[in-house]
Amino acid sequence: MRRNPARTGPAALLPHLSPLNGHWTTATIAEDATGQPVEIGIALLPGIEWPYPPETCPTSCGTWHLNGELVICEGCGADGT
Description:
Largest sheet: 2 strands, antiparallel
Helix content: under 10%
Number of helices: 0
Number of domains: 1
Order of helices and strands: EEEE
């Protein structure tokens, strides 16, 4: 996985979305098990509007991108890798 030097913290581990003509934004949500806040990456891809916000997304499946390097949630666009 290529690191993104434009970001710091956990967001720096997100791969570049430029091959998909997209980019990342981040959201802070409560972690499922502990309720502690965690920062997650949300993919912004051209022509795709995610139907759910990450806080209430019921989707448990994703789509592989970047030659199997990245899974993006089909419901909210969150990084699932």
